[in-house]
Amino acid sequence: MDFKDSENLAPKKETVTLEDVVSREIVQEILKFGVTQSQILKIIEVLALELENRNTMISIVECINKDHEMESGLITDI
């Protein structure tokens, strides 16, 4: 998105778009480390534990645990 396009966005939409760009950049930095699929799931789980919305956190963690058998539920296993 160039500057001209961003002028046409509502302020709230522009903020959300910029936050999405930053999120994608963070993901790219994590992937540069050469993480495994198991590590990606653990990162998602740990980030989910930081969410303020408890219901969303539980849903994400349950989804990960349902499809990926965790070796241990301890956060110290990271």
Q: Tell me the major beta sheet.
A: none
Number of domain modules = 2
Class by SSE composition:
mainly alpha
The amount of helix comes to 55-70%
Distance between the termini: 37 Å
**Unreliable runs:** none
Instruction: Encode the helix/strand succession as letters.
Output: HHHH
| Number of distinct beta strands | 0
What is the average per-residue confidence, as pLDDT, rounded to a whole number? 83
Radius of gyration over alpha carbons?
16 Å
Number of helices: 4
Key descriptive features of the protein:
78 residues, mainly alpha, flat
Task: Write up this protein.
- Helix content is 68%, strand content 0%.
- The protein is mostly helical and 78 residues long.
- The chain folds into two domains: 1-34, no CATH class; 35-78, no CATH class.
- Helix 3 packs antiparallel against helix 4 (54-67).
What's the layout of helices and strands?
Elements: H1 3-7, H2 11-32, H3 37-48, H4 54-67
Helix pairs in contact: 3-4
Give the structure's gist in a few sentences.
By secondary structure, this protein is mainly α. Helix content is 68%, strand content 0%. It folds into 2 domains: 1-34, no CATH class; 35-78, no CATH class.
